[in-house]
């Protein structure tokens, strides 16, 4: 594994350290009788930006939801930032506050203003004084370019703006890892770019990112590894150029020809 | 499309014409809203429609006229307004309408029951405090959190002391007075510290979540703790004496029982609803059984049981205040109903809201308190207020265990032969109905206002 990362490391000035951020070993998950994830092995290094793609129902969402324990796995181990995911609530809360997550449907809290959405967790989980939390929130709202919407409610914002708020909300917890589950697939085309730009900026700052997306332009631009999943397994992983130009397995070729249009 | 294809292009703004006559004025309004639907005879089905509409409209109008004319006649034109000679029933019996002097004469009982007149200022002070507190919470005033906390803690204590009174023994029992001073101080200290810690999340999540419940428990506890202190002060200053609860009556009782039910039902209902949704089986089935059993029994039978059967089970001599029994019955009842209303709100919450909270590292109680409950309660405000209104009216059932609430008191005054006229009962029922209506309609309007306020902005 580490050799592969060495190869991938120098990309657009973004560096990957040899510190392990996430280590998944022999992980299996079932929904009742249904075997969703099979023998997943995955090591993510700090600063790595990984794009996960694959056909619908292949278990991409389930995989990244396992990483912050929104779903529990039944076999194997997941170690996030040195903490092993067990059913111990303390560990789970700790990991969730270190790992940010953005959802397809944003999941903002509609009864709170944008600013309150962003300060809620820092105040209640991190116990940061309110004033400081507001400063942090404004800092990140500026970063996603919507500080002027701070006192509106989520329902008053466009989809793209809402997703950027969701990113800012996660960043306010100062996470070490960010997970994205199809962050742009519920958006109109003209809003996709503004969200991707925010994510690219985040990547350039060296955030460790795992991103389920079918935006292949984004994958080429920022990813240092693309993972292809099918039927609950990791079928292929490679750096983007190799992955797109020279896919190894038939499943990958088939998938890429569908998604790239020809 | 290019410009060439456009046959006609208006180059100036169209002049604004006055709206057609059918749209303006009283005639326009009447036509559009009332007569237009009755005047379309262009086809068979439309003719039938128009005829039906005519019948319905005329019928409703006649009905309205009949009701209003009857009411006006009863309350005004044929009514007796005064009884200057003090001849009571003779003054009223000559007229066919309402007997207002009777209401005037019995108003005190409607409001206070058999509460001694020289002590009635205590009820008035309690009601005044209640009115101020509610007004403070209903209208956008500063520091509402503090006022709400006071209304939940200090107000029950103060009003209980006011209504009930509890003089210290006058035979120089100073130890009791001292106990009355120190005990409350300790309780206050503990509660204050708990509140402070919980508010800043320093006691951990569970404590923060149960802080409101702790406060209510502390209020109950404080009720006993503070009683000697407050009563001592009142007693020394004003010389209050005990007014047994069986002397309370009228609107006072209605409000005491209803407010106890309303205040207790929300937190208890929330806990039961969460319990019912919980994964922990014991918690879950306890909640389910409680809710289903309580919903499966009529309130009246519980009250009856409490009044007639409980003495058989208790040791002789143990007296469990009848009003307290009724209040507990009403509280448990309203809690079970409230739990189901709130559960409806919880089920309407999308899964993403829980996940959004979880992914930020919020604990279960934080998610419930900060994200889920505020939204769930907002969506079910109509149901909550509906339950409140039902509860308010159901309090009349305490009549069954001979506690005389507003309705019961009015019924009792009907037995007074000096006011026995054919219309006395109707007058009384009309007044009682009006009082209930004012309270219930007020609650209903307030819920509409809250809904509009809370739904503004989001979604
Ligand atoms: N809560 C659940 N209970 C049972 N089966 C589930 C559950 N969630 C997902 N699945 C199943 O698990 C499989 C993987 O789901 P997952 O959402 O991870 O797919 P995905 O790769 O993210 O697909 P998509 O691209 O459509 O989002 C699917 O077949 C789905 O039907
Ligand atoms: Mg998915």
TrEMBL record, chain A:
- UniProt domain ABC transporter: residue ranges: 22-256
Tell me which PANTHER family the record gives.
Answer: AMINO ACID IMPORT ATP-BINDING PROTEIN, PHOSPHONATES IMPORT ATP-BINDING PROTEIN PHNC
Q: What is the lineage of its organism?
A: Bacteria, Pseudomonadati, Pseudomonadota, Alphaproteobacteria, Rhodobacterales
Report keywords, A-Z.
Answer: ATP-binding, Nucleotide-binding, Transport
Protein name as it appears in the record:
Glutamine transport ATP-binding protein GlnQ
Q: Which GO terms describe its molecular function?
A: ABC-type amino acid transporter activity; ATP binding; ATP hydrolysis activity
Top-rank lineage group of the source organism? Bacteria
The UniProt entry, under InterPro entries, shows: AAA+_ATPase, ABC_ATPase_HisP-typ, ABC_transporter-like_ATP-bd, ABC_transporter-like_CS, MetN_ABC_transporter-like, P-loop_NTPase
Q: Does the keyword Metal-binding apply?
A: no
Would I find Nucleotide-binding among this entry's keywords? yes
Which residues belong to the signal peptide in this entry?
none
Family classification: Belongs to the ABC transporter superfamily.
Q: SMART domains per the record?
A: AAA (SM00382)
- Please report a single Pfam family linked to this protein: ABC_tran
UniProtKB/TrEMBL annotation, chain B:
Keyword match Cytoplasm: no
Question: Cross-referenced SUPFAM superfamilies, in alphabetical order?
Answer: MetI-like
Pfam families, per database record: BPD_transp_1 (PF00528)
Q: What is this protein called?
A: Inner membrane amino-acid ABC transporter permease protein YhdY
> What family does the entry list?
Belongs to the binding-protein-dependent transport system permease family. HisMQ subfamily.
Q: Where are the transmembrane segments?
A: 48-68, 120-139, 146-165, 177-197, 209-230, 250-275, 296-314, 326-349, 426-446
What is the membrane topology noted in the UniProt record heading this document? Multi-pass membrane protein
Keywords in alphabetical order, please.
Cell membrane, Membrane, Transmembrane, Transmembrane helix, Transport
Q: Where is the signal peptide?
A: none
Any idea where this protein resides? Cell inner membrane; Cell membrane
The record ties this protein, via CDD domains, to: TM_PBP2 (cd06261)
GO cellular component terms, alphabetically, are: ATP-binding cassette (ABC) transporter complex
Q: Which residues, by range, are in coiled-coil regions? A: none
Q: Which GO terms describe its molecular function?
A: transmembrane transporter activity
Organism field: Pelagimonas phthalicica
Domain of life according to the entry: Bacteria
A single Gene Ontology biological process assigned to it is:
amino acid transport
What InterPro entries does the annotation carry? Answer: AA_ABC_transptr_permease_3TM, ArtM/GltK/GlnP/TcyL/YhdX-like, MetI-like, MetI-like_sf
| Limits of the ABC transmembrane type-1 domain | 251-447
Gene name linked to the record = yhdY
């Amino acid at each position: 594994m580490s050799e592969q990362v060495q190869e991938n490391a120098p990309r657009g000035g973004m560096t990957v350290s040899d510190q392990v951020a996430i280590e998944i070993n022999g992980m299996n998950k079932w929904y009742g009788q249904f075997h969703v994830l099979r023998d997943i092995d995955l090591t993510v290094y700090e600063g790595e930006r990984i794009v996960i793609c694959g056909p619908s129902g292949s278990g991409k969402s389930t995989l990244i939801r396992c990483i912050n324990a929104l779903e529990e796995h039944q076999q194997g181990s997941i170690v996030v930032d040195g903490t092993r995911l067990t059913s111990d609530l303390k560990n789970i809360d700790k990991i969730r506050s270190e790992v940010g997550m953005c959802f397809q449907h944003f999941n903002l809290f509609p009864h709170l203003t944008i600013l309150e959405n962003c300060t809620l967790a820092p105040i209640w989980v991190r116990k940061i004084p309110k004033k400081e939390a507001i400063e942090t929130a404004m800092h990140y709202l500026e970063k996603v370019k919507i500080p002027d919407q701070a006192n509106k409610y989520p329902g008053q914002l466009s989809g793209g703006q809402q997703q950027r708020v969701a990113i800012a909300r996660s960043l306010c917890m100062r996470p070490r890892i960010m997970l994205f589950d199809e962050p742009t697939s519920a958006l109109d085309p003209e809003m996709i770019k503004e969200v991707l730009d925010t994510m690219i900026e985040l990547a350039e700052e060296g955030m460790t990112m795992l991103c389920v997306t079918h935006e292949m332009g984004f994958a080429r631009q920022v990813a240092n590894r693309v993972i292809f999943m099918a039927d609950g397994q990791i079928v292929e992983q490679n750096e983007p150029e190799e992955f797109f130009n020279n896919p190894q397995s038939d499943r990958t070729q088939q998938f890429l020809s569908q998604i790239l249009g020809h | 499309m290019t410009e060439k294809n456009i046959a006609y292009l208006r180059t100036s703004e169209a002049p604004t014409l006055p709206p057609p006559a059918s749209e303006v004025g009283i005639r326009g309004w009447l036509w559009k809203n009332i007569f237009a639907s009755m005047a379309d005879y262009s086809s068979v089905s439309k003719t039938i429609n128009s005829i039906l509409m005519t019948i319905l409209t005329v019928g409703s109008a006649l009905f309205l006229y009949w009701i209003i004319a009857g009411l006006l006649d009863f309350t005004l034109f044929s009514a007796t307004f005064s009884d200057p000679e003090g001849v009571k029933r003779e003054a009223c019996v000559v007229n066919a309408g309402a007997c207002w002097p009777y209401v005037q004469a019995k108003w005190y009982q409607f409001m206070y029951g058999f509460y001694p007149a020289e002590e009635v200022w205590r009820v008035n002070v309690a009601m005044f405090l209640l009115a101020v507190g509610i007004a403070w919470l209903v209208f956008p005033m500063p520091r509402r959190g503090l006022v709400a906390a006071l209304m939940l803690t200090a107000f029950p204590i103060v009003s209980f002391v006011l209504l009930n009174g509890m003089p210290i023994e006058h035979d120089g029992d100073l130890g009791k007075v001292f106990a009355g001073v120190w005990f409350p101080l300790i309780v206050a200290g503990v509660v204050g510290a708990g509140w402070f810690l919980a508010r800043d999340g320093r006691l951990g999540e569970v404590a923060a979540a149960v802080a409101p419940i702790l406060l209510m428990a502390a209020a109950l506890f404080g009720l006993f703790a503070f009683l000697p202190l407050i009563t001592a002060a009142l007693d020394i200053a004003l010389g209050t004496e005990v007014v047994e609860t069986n002397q309370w009556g009228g609107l006072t009782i209605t409000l005491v029982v209803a407010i106890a039910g309303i205040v207790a039902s929300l937190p208890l209902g929330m806990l039961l609803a969460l319990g019912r949704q919980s994964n922990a089986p014991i918690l879950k089935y306890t909640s389910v059984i409680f809710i289903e059993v309580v919903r499966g029994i009529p309130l009246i039978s519980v009250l009856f049981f409490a009044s007639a059967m409980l003495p058989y089970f208790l040791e002789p001599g143990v007296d469990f205040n009848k009003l307290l029994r009724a209040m507990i019955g009403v509280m448990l009842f309203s809690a079970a109903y409230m739990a189901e209303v709130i559960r409806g709100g919880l089920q309407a919450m999308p899964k993403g809201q829980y996940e959004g909270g979880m992914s930020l590292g919020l604990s279960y109680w934080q998610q419930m308190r900060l994200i889920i409950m505020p939204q769930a309660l907002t969506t079910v405000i109509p149901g909550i207020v509906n339950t409140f209104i039902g509860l308010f009216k159901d309090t009349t059932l305490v009549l069954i265990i001979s506690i005389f609430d507003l309705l019961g008191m009015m019924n009792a005054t009907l037995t007074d032969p000096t006011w026995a006229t054919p219309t006395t009962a109707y007058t009384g029922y009309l007044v009682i109905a009006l009082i209930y209506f004012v309270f219930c309609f007020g609650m209903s309007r307030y819920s509409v206002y809250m809904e509009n306020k809370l739904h503004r902005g989001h979604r």
